[in-house]
Structure formats: structure tokens, C-alpha cells
Amino acid sequence: MTPHVTGATVKAADRAHVFHSWSAQALIDPLAVAGAEGSYFWDYDGNRFLDFSSQLVNTNIGHQHPKVVAAVQEQAARLCTLAPGFAVDVRSEAARLIAERTPGDLDKIFFTNGGAEAVENAVRMARLHTGRQKVLSAYRSYHGATAAAINLTGDPRRWPSDTASAGVVHFWGPFLYRSPFHATTEQEECERALAHLADTIAFEGPASIAAIILESVPGTAGIMTPPPGYLAGVRELCDRYGIVFILDEVMSGFGRTGKWFAAEHWDVTPDLITFAKGVNSGYVPLGGVAISAAIAETFATRPYPGGLTYSGHPLACAAAVATINAMEEEDIVGNAARIGAEVIAPGLADLAERHPSVGEVRGLGVFWALELVRDKETREPLVPYNASGADNAPMAAFAAACKASGLWPFVNMNRTHVVPPCTVTEAEAKEGLALLDEALTVADRHTAGA
Questions:
Q1: pLDDT at 449
Q2: What pTM does this model have?
Q3: Which candidate, 294, 285, 440, 302, places its Cα nearest to that of 361?
Q4: How far is residue 245's CA from residue 140's CA, in Å, rounded to a whole number?
Q5: Is residue 53 helix, strand or coil?
Q6: pLDDT per residue over 416-434, tens digit each?
Q7: Edge-to-edge strands of the sheet including 33-37?
Q8: Residues 6 or more apart in contact with residue 388 via CB below 8 angstroms
Q9: I need a surface site. Which of 82, 112, 182, 430 has the fewest CB within 10 A?
Q10: Helix crossing, 345-354 with 426-444: angle to 10°?
Q11: What is the pLDDT of residue 163?
Q12: Regions of the chain with pLDDT less than 50
């Protein structure tokens, strides 16, 4: 007989045996989750949370979507696994559906188990295609935690693993609210950011640079939507010097910004796109690289020196096929665009107007950030960069207030992100905004005039 499961027994087993990522193991207290559905999950005591984090901004179709659950079950009954060297119907169909939605001629799909592996392989392809080694990436970025990906990452999670010998050069991307270029308009920010990147390329030596990798819309680093013309300008620089342009759409892809891929907002086609997360909402781990014709041709008669045992895993691909078809049938991408434009954007603008702690709101679709500050005039962040312990107390108190009210937030540094599933309803979005409104009063207590 199965023993009675409680939150306490689940947590005890977790604390005895599970080693958690990005954590000091003795200082964490993971919530024991009993179940989830749609935009909500709940614990063993019946406490229900509106998931305004989409877990790690990946459950784009929400929790337990019945069409995807059924597809995984059906695939498991038919064929659970097969090595990547075989042709498998569900793998081919997943690749076809993804390729249909990528921009331009990115028609070949290399499957991985997640986003970091997608970045690793995209960089390897770029280096082999060009015969060069250096890769440029932005300081405000996150590209994964594997060897190359963590060195490409700009945020502080890179620091303990950064060897300064990985062939990576960082540069400043555009971010008008905290402009490193002393810009006062989006046009100035765009022009100066592109001039800075052009100078970086010139001083690093264009012939030594294999690739430039950017998140189409940086995710964990703050959801800074690029100014008009920026991505097109990077594309032009890459074309000028024969540099491979990689767009990381691991977080921004598959409906998150109200388009299948965020690059569509700016009508830009890169040479490689990395994806994961929303491709099947994480129901079974899956990621990949969408590859242009020119780069695919490099490996037409030359073996590509990379692979994974579980590349294109049948269960993961079945989940992807069902996810993409459900998103199409139910207009989930359109829902993300509508909820963003009609509910979240005006709702957050109202919060910014009323709360002294909200310095800026920015985003697209169901991909938004609130920049929390101590002073709207000076734009001093509510907590210092990479704060921890007592220095992070204001953000910790804000996050605790969210959770106490039944809202599960995505908090990073001095920001909270509004990133519900792409399936979120108008009523759910309004519920989340009301709970956020309440929690922001806690952040307000730490502002200059409080």
C-alpha cells in the first residue's frame, strides 16, 4: 500500500536527497507542490497560486493541457524512445512544424534536450562554419549554464565559472531606462548601441569573430525590448563582416511575445535560432537549433561533430507536435498578443502611475517587467545589483507578499516579471494585476518618500 503523501513527507524527501540548482542547499525551503492546471498550481495544504512566472517562463500553454498530456501518453504506448540516427515520424513532424514558423530559410532543425545545449551547438556550428573562434554577447543576458553558454551569459551567474579564456567578448546592448550611452531617446539609444557594437567588432578584429548572439528580447536580465532598428543593425554588421547572427529565442519564442518568434516584431532573420521552453511548455525536455540553408550546407558532406543520445526524443517531440497544433487551433499566440495589449499593458501602466516603487514597465505579449526603484527621479534600484541577504530585504519582502496573497512571482534583482502562460484569460490576468497591486504597497515602503 502506498503511504499517505503529505507536503511534509515530500519536503523531507527533497531535503534528504535533492540537490537544487543556483542554491545554498541549507538555506532553501522548497514548496511541495501537489498539482497544477492551467494558470494555477497548489500545495498539499490547499493553498492555490496564480502562476505569474510560468514556472521558469516555459509553461506557455499552461499546466496539464489535455491535448499535450494525451499526445505524450499515446506516444509512450506506441514508441517511447529511439536513437537519433533513425527517422521517426513524430520527430520529423515536430521539425516540420517548427521550421514552418521560423523566419526565412531556417528549415533544418537540430534537436537538443534544452536551451543551454541549443546555445552550445549553435556556437559550435558558427565556429565550424566560419573557421573563427570569438563570440560576442551582451552583458545583460542569460544563455544557459553549460560550459560555453555560461561564459556567454552576462549576468552574475557567470562569475564563478568564467574562465576569461572561452573566446567570449561582452558588449553593452540597448536599454534606454539605464542607458550606458547617455541616450535620451530610443533612436539615440539604437544608434549609439550599434556604434558601440561596431567599435567592439573593429577592435576585436572582424576576421576573428564567429558569431554575435543576442536574446531577441532579453529575458531574465530584464525584458528590455530592443529599440526599432537595433536588430536590423546587428544583422547588417554581421553581413558586412561574415559573422553568424544567432538569436536566442529560448524564452521569447513560441508565443511569449505575441508572435511565434520575437524576431518577427522587427522583421529580422538570423542565421541560427535557439529554442526550448515554449516549444512544448517543458512537458518533456526539448530544445533545438533552427539552421539556415548556408550553415546547413556546410555539413552536407562534412560530418557535424556533435550529438546527444536523446536528440529528438519521441516523447518530447510528441509533446512539441501537440503543443504547436494546440497553439494554432486555439489561437494561443493571438491570445498572448491580445491579453498583453488590452489587459497587461494598460494594467501595468496604471500600477506605475500609482506606485512610487515602479520606475518603468516594459514588454510585449505576456512578457513584461516592472523595474522597482527607491526613487523615480534618480532611478536608484530598489536593491543593489546582485543583492543578497539584508541588502535584498525589500525585494524579498515584496516576493513574500505576492506569495502570501496567492500570486507566484518571477523576481530577479530589482525587477518582478509578469510572465503568465500564453493561455491566461482576461479574468486571470486582472486577478494577477490586483494581487500585484496589493504586493507593491510593500515595495512602496522602501522608496525615498516613504
A1: 80
A2: 0.96
A3: 440
A4: 18
A5: coil
A6: 999 999 999 999 999 999 9
A7: 33-37, 40-43, 48-51, 407-408
A8: none
A9: 182
A10: 20
A11: 87
A12: 1
